[in-house]
Protein 1
Amino acid sequence: MRKIQVDALVVGGGIAGMQTSLDLADQGYQVALVEKEPSIGGKMIALSKVFPTLDCCSCITTPKMSAVAHHPKIQLLTYHEIQAIERNGSGFKADVLKKARFVIEEDCTGCRQCEYACPISLPNPFDLDYGATKAVRVPFSTAVPQYAVLDIENCILCGKCAKACPVDCIDFTQQSETLTIQADSIVLATGFETTSRLDKKEYGAADNPNVINAMFMERLLAPTGPYGRVIRPGDGKEPDSIAYIQCAGSRDATLGVEYCSRVCCMYAIKQAMLIAGSLPLADITIYYMDIRTFGKGYEQFYQNAKAMGIQFVKGKVASIKQDESQNPVLRVELIDEGSRVEEITHDLAVLSVGMLPHYDPEAVFKVSLGDDGFVNIPHTNAYPCLTEQAGIFVAGTSAGPMDIVDSIVMSGSAAAEAAAYIEGIKGSPSPKEKSEDVYA
Amino acid sequence: MSDREAAKKQAQLLKELRNEHEETVARTQSLLKEQGKTERDILKTIKEGSKTVPTIASELDLPTDRVLWFLTALKKYDQVQEDGMDGEYVLYKRREE
Amino acid sequence: MPKKENEEIKIGVYTCYCGGNISDVVDCEGVAEQLAKFPNVVVSRTNMAMCSDVGQSMIEEDIKEKGINRVVIGACAPSLHEQTFRGTVTRAGLNPYLYYHVGLREQDSWVHKCDCDGASVKAVRLMATGLAKAQLLDPLAPIELSAEKHALVIGGGIAGLKSALDIARRGLRVTLIEKSPFLGGRVAQLDTLFPSGENARETVHELIDKVVSHPNIVVYTQAQVKNVSGYVGDYQVGISQDSRGVDDTNAEELMAACQQNVPDDFNYGLTERKVIYRAYPGCFPHTPAVDWENYDGKPLTVNGQEITLENKTVSIPLHVGAIVVATGFNPYQPRRGEFGYGELPEVVTLAALIRHISLLNEGEELTWNGRPVRDIAMVHCVGSREIEGVHEPQPDGQVNNYCSRVCCTATLHMINSLKERFPHLNIYDLYEDIRTYGRGHEEYYHEALENMVRFLRFHGDDRPTVETAAAGDTHPVLVEMRDHLTCGEEVEIPVDLVVLAVAIMPRDIDDLVRMLKISRGNDRFLAEVHPKLRPVETAVPGIILAGTAQGPMTVQESCAAASAAAAKVSALLSSGQVELEPFVAQVDLEKCTGTGDCVTVCEYEDAIAVKEIEYEGEMVLKAAVTPANCTGCGNCVSACPNQAIQVQGWTIPQYDAMLDAIALDFNELMEVAE
């Protein structure tokens, strides 16, 4: 069985996992980055543009992905999953499953002929199932690595892909493999998932495709989106009037998510500004409880959005029904207008969904969770990356909702803590004579 | 081995695997049949002229969101392309070679 | 490094769509087609995102398989991806300086959104300049220098302490300097920290203990940076340290003898202290210090002897590889009359209130100026979220348009602590938006609601006013505002105390900013290179930011940023080597006649000098460049009467070629080589 020995094992290949890996590798440490999906990139690669700079997401994520793939000190293990961890000497031993792609990776050139040849169209998870993909596919256009992967559960085994492949790299007999990774330290960067648009029954999303999840609006606005333009998924109409419902998956005891998801005010405002660029005649209204634009440059971003004509209306949307054309009809108390209750029709309703932890590390890593379901950080102020397990650190949204900037900072922090921990195990270089002088 | 022999071996292998994965293959095959019909119907109706999602949906008596999904799939794999707008709706036509 | 003789130049030119940022305006395909016709262009391609792995692989393959030996990429600004593409080209085996980056986004598509045709023509022309330069590119090697495995951390607050500790634990040496006589910064002024409720002093002292006992760290208090020179890996920093003025043998006696009192800044002027003082009980260092700024110079009488305290400043020269700036923040000081501050004695800042409460004894009643307090109004956003044209600007003419991030949670934390300790209090919270965004923060809002706090909401452009109540009224102060939670009603709130949740402001570190040559953002805080991609680095290599010097942050966020800064320092210094860009002046010895005009105009110390060297058998005067000190500014290039100096990678012939590309007809350009 294959054995890999590294200084740090990073679990998760989203922005936090990638940045932590780079920060550790740049310091000279050997890193193994394990990602369970066939490509790294996490949620960030699926977004449109980032706030508040409005850089194109692809443009700032792909170089990180590329740097990770090419860094001499990082071993990138995609489509691998950690099955078990145990302490082993001063470090950890991880049992890892390498899942079968049914593609011989060394030969695959990412040409996608297999994908075009495949007869089955499936909902595309990268487009939140709104777009289509095939049973065998390269996960998305900027995937790293650019290898195809076959979803055997949705395959009729017709063999068309194998015939189409110019380098004959489809292997239906491929088996999954196991390997072990021995690492001095572990960094959990398993990321988040959003709350579902179906969670709040009052919002009627189950019956109305024009009540969408904000993550899908990201896909609509992204250059690699499913439709290539902003149209509503119910019937393909270009929306004239778009509503954002803030806190549609956060700060809501009825949903069991009482915390603030931190990023939704900013992403809603960002998306509104991008829509205003893409559909200049559209009316955009953001219905909110509190506008939380707290970060560097964020308040200015909010004020710019107001100046652009985006409407901000204080009022928590109570329910969403639909009219005969599946237009969402919002029922909301308008706090700033004498608190009167109104029913307002829009073409498209975007739910600003909240963040949930993507993965529960308790079973495998023996790391406990806080009441909110995210990883428990015992000394949250002075040691924001330390879990209760010595040698296991956390970065990014596994430790709670946060935006990209804070994830990148936290990744640096996790890298610093992991490095110090590794040095502690290896034994720091012998210190010089300590000077007694603290002050003259 | 020759190409012919290799092809035969592959066909045999696939047959065995299809037996092994009987359930998922059966499920997927019926999905494929249904999909195939819908795609063919859509391609046929837009051959008559560029059409919008609501028009196609009404002609084929299918939900509009489903029609949009199929058009998205067909567009991604180069069988359909846009042909301007009809008001607020996109017109779709068969992709020209 | 001269290029190979008779090397056939094969250019690969790549025009990026930039995810639409360029292609939405510029006709990238059309541009690529045009560029294919230029001399020596072997491939001309486009890509949706050239920086993606797909885009980069495409370039790598062209280099390996088609023998491309010059690369021109038209994309976003070089500041984003020049390094990325240097890496791409290097991996393919080509010298990274045989690639030239053309900015088609910030310099074209983003500024000509209304003129797609014009933008596309301009794109061809910009790329043409790149192609012209590519013909004249030389392979260059970065300048490798040894790096001092030693970092300087400026600031002894929680960010500085954490950064120093993490750098030291990594095995590097650290010198930490703190301007005041005591470590601990602003956290030592707090009582408990959210969201855990932990004791603030215990938290910061745990770090102080680790820092001062770590063998890799040396700490200097009462120390400041006086001068800085050098570059990443080799900074020379002059530190000036004031003396403590007293020592453990005489401190207590001198303190007792001292009669001079000044307002205690640590308690925001609520109390007084002597000019020989300790910041707080249990502070570190434990030895008291003399407040030299305020000491009147008069002798103190101890045991019949007259002792005049003397400040014997010492200079400490340091040789460091990197510098971490952790200089912290100041709470906003409202203007006189702002919400009644400074005019009504019952108006206090949240920062000062925290001190006031900390100084109360167990079981003591809450009073203010001797009067019992029962009704309190907390006002959010004082000095934050200001709107130009609506709010009075700060002394520098700008309003504070940013959010100070921590104050909503800090205010609610204070409210809940007050209600726990003084249950009879009646508290009004006047806010614009409640920003309890962080993990564990929303709970403070819930708890405040359960504590029967009355919330009132104002609009940012219509803030509450604070007035003295009429004589004989039940309360000394009236707060008036329009409350939008009750249909915009005008309300009048009689209170005993008004607490202003004041903004976070950067400290006055003009001197340091100038010495380090770092920059500030519009919000006056220190600026990072890229807020998304590189949130703790400045534009100056080797100078890293940590904590609130960069912007408002909670304690947790400051510690995370401080550790991230440590990781960057470690990445820079742990190999013991740094690389500098090769864009430095180079002297053509054949043309140089040693006039020294270059030395006259050079503004950088020891970058260029005229020296006597042996040249073609004779001892002659020639100019010599010290590459590590040269910034490549080009002053010498223009001053030299013999045109004997060029800046490597940016030579005059290259500029001439680029200017031709701009001025000449396209047809002429394309015909040139044929």
Protein 2
Amino acid sequence: MTTSLWKLVGAAAAVALFGISEAEAQAPIKIGASLSLTGTYAKPGTYQKEGYEVCADELNAKGGLLGRKVEFVMYDDQSSTQTAQRLYEKLITEDKVEAVMGPYSSGITESVAGISEKYKKVMVSPLAATTSIFRQGRKYIFMVISPAEFYLEGLVDMGAKRGLKTIAIINEDTLFPKATVVGTEELAKKRGLQVVLREAYPKGNTDFSALLVKIKAVNPDIIAAATYFDDAVAITRQMKELNVNPKMFGVTVGGDIPEFYTLLKQNAEYVYGSTQWDEVLPYPGQKEFLSAYQKRFKHEPSYHAAAGYAGCLIYAEGVKRAKSLDADLVRAELLKLKIRTAFGDYAVDQDGFQTAHKMVMIQWQDGKRVVVWPDDLASGKLRFPTPPWSQR
Amino acid sequence: MKRGLLAAFCVLLLGLAVYPMAGTGYGIRFMLQLFMWIALAQSWNLISGLTGYVSFGHIAFFGMGAYTAGILIAKLGWPWLLASLAGGVGAMVLALVIGWPCLRLKGPYFAISMLGLNEVLRVAVSYFEGLTGGGSGLSLPALYASVAIYYSMGLVALAVTALTYVIVTSRFGLRLMTIREDEIAAEAMGINTFRYKLYAFLLSAVGPGIVGGLAARDQSYIEPISVFPLIMTITMIVMVLFGGKGTIWGPVLGAVLLFTLQEMIWARFIYVHQLLFGAIIVTVVLFMPRGILGVLQQKYNLPRTI
Amino acid sequence: MLGQVVISGLLAGALYAMVALGLGLIFGVMRVLNVSHGPLLMLGAYTTFWLFQWLGLNPYLSLLVSMPLLFLVGMALQRLFVRRVVDAPELSSLLLTFGVSIAIVNLAQLAFTADLRSVEYLTGSFVWGPFAFSKSRVIACAFAIVITTGAFLFLRRTRLGKAVRAVSQSREVAQVCGIDVGRIHMLAFGIGSALAAAGGSLVAVMVAIQPEMGQVYTFKSFLVIVLGGAGNYPGALLGGLLLGLIEQLSSLFLTTQVNEAVAYILLVLVLLVRPTGLLKGRA
């Protein structure tokens, strides 16, 4: 009686142990992310989330990572720094995620970067473009997109090549646009352009008439604006109203989204926009990404989604090569990694700062975005110079 | 009854004191932010709850403290504790500069002039870019001091609460409350209303100034929009209103309840939590203008020192 | 350059004046500082947008819809919520209307999403000598002048308008004279909301429409009425024009960044010299 009882217990224990180890092996790999799903950055934050989801689907369809399913643990940081900080602590110390993906804005990223660093967890930051974040000696953070300073490189390059002489630079007074104009000004000076005006406007400003009057008075060849979306639209519109006619006018964020044309219609023609990614670019895996995204979310992806997707893939690649989830091993792989995804090139320097990814410039032509710079990725020729409003 | 409450309070304090050893990083951060809110709500109560002068721009003192301390830490290498105290002093100076002209104004004029204060400071930060980093924000050298900041915030919260107790039970406090009830009568009785209002205003600025400095250290990065947001002033106000304006423990109660609720429940209802917040404000103003403790105070004839 | 900027300022100022008059009316009659004024303007803008989108209705004609619509909404708000804080200290009315404004903005976000909208109608400018003015701004100014004049005629010439002014001056005496104060309150809030809606409809063709667009107009309206004298109706006009001018001039001579700050600093300075605004407001 006792022996059979013991046998039963032994068998049960064996099954239980087997069950536990099976369950452990099947436990999903958790990647944490805090996103701005509400608040100021709600739109891009939501796109970023969709990018992660497409990536997770893709990885899981191919057998997961290291044989385990990938699962994202996502929270809404309400576009607020304090909330984001709490959430990253929560993700790492309570949800015990293996690694984290960065939040949307540069400002929030800067304030949470210290947390992943403190706990020595890898943070892939898909949408932070500000150089200073990556130059503070942090070891566990990796940049995916091109830095802010190069956003308008194409505009300056194209203008300088065609013999233009003067440039006016304006920006919204927040972290990212400021970084952009610092870089733009440097690039302009290097190419021999004279910066005739440089001014910032507060976030949320809607009336640019006085600023445009000042610009008109100095009559620059190029107007470069480091903007987000609403200001890009407002400036373009008011340029027409006040009859400001530069030979080239370029904006940063906002110039490349479909809504820009929807809101401005023909007035958007000839405007240059910079983007981190466009679906017409000849990158591998684009088609698969586009169809998977369209199928799941029923609309076109923006570059935020593509960046989120890429960030997650890059992390996965690092894990695959390290054959482990250990942060230091993964980190070593990510530092060495050179890869081209549907989003573009990836390679970082020893600070985790992105060195390979290229910004492209588009121009609105006949209601479509045409990639006009750099030449090796261009899908069309630029229309230069921009004709004055009265002739359109 | 009183001894029991005192004992319970001591146990609570003890528990809070040892919490960092058991809590996770998240828990500690949560608690220290809670202490921050308690200090903010309590300070707002000092000017608006006691004198009835609605300070709609109180967060400006928080931001002032944050930038003062931030600049001292980043540019001059001051130790953060000292820098935060300096933040408190900076906030007091700002209160003096602003209070001097504005406290002479009555009712809506005062409220609106305070509302504008935020804007002006934000612009000033952008203007003095070299010092403050402007829109790019200010980065502090990395330091992981959550536990130390936890204790500091806790101490400030405790100190401001104690200060409120001292004021409410003093003649100074009585004078303030007289101003709230009927300013003209107060003047007629010989109280120099302007001077007392100014004192209260200065005292109400110190707390936010110090916690602003501490928060800046904790976040290691500040930018204008994150330290001067209107929504923080509103949250402060609602916390006090909810708990009981003019009472001592009301702001504490309000802060604890609202902050915890926000974290636990609202974060689940992502897309409607702002709406819920608005609904709570409307409900509190319409049906419970005296707040929870205010209602209890009236019903059970509780002492003023609640 | 200066001329262009001054005229621009006056154009914008007329619009501010109209919207601020709405806020001023509400304050004058009820001593309520209506923080939800901006969101009401936003609703007016959305009304114009949807009518344009679905029916192709001329945005200026949509004023005939947005104004009455928001008039009714305003009356409802007053009856349901604001009524209870009419006599309370201003903290209550400020907070209540703030809560209402959060609710309106968030409902709009849920209903319309935060996507930017715009009414593409009438772009281009009138060129007059060396000046170029956006067509939509000039026409908005014209409408603002007409509507504001209408509001003043209402207040001066009609019995109802006089009743409103009576209640603004002294509620008790008005009651004794047989005026139904409750109804006047509702009327005032309704008119105030209608004026905000008019502002919204007019700016719908000029700026990006999104749920949070109203906030900046709330601030500006507050500035205007305090500058001109809270509760003083002609003061709103003066304040509005002044604000428009100050904004443009400071953008020109300083930078666009410091606009708001300059306006507020000027406000505080004015209040120091004239504690109830430029044209003697009420406490």
